[in-house]
Amino acid sequence: MALVYKICPRDLWREAEALGRFTGAPVDHADGFIHFSTADQVAETAARHFAGQEDLLLVAVEADALGPALRFEPSRGGALFPHLYADLPLSAVRSVAVLHLGPDGRHVFPAEVPQA
């Protein structure tokens, strides 16, 4: 099972749980799709876009469960990033973990997320 990851503020995720689906963060709404990262990309995404932020969650999503609405498209440096052109159904979520800040100020990822 291939997973993609969404870094999400806890309050936005709680809204998604109440709604039964995740409609995206403000940046997702602005860009017209929900941004995800692969396991190899998620640490850089955290460092680049969420540096020093607390109260974040790491949402692991089964890529195949999203069907054709999930597209891998070129982004920074030509790398292919997963973008979801639909709401995220909570049925596709495999885990939600707190994304803590380490003593160095960088986010600490759960052991099951392979890091480069």
From TrEMBL:
It holds the Pfam family DUF952. Coiled coil: none annotated. InterPro entries: DUF952 (IPR009297). This is DUF952 domain-containing protein. It comes from Methylorubrum rhodesianum.
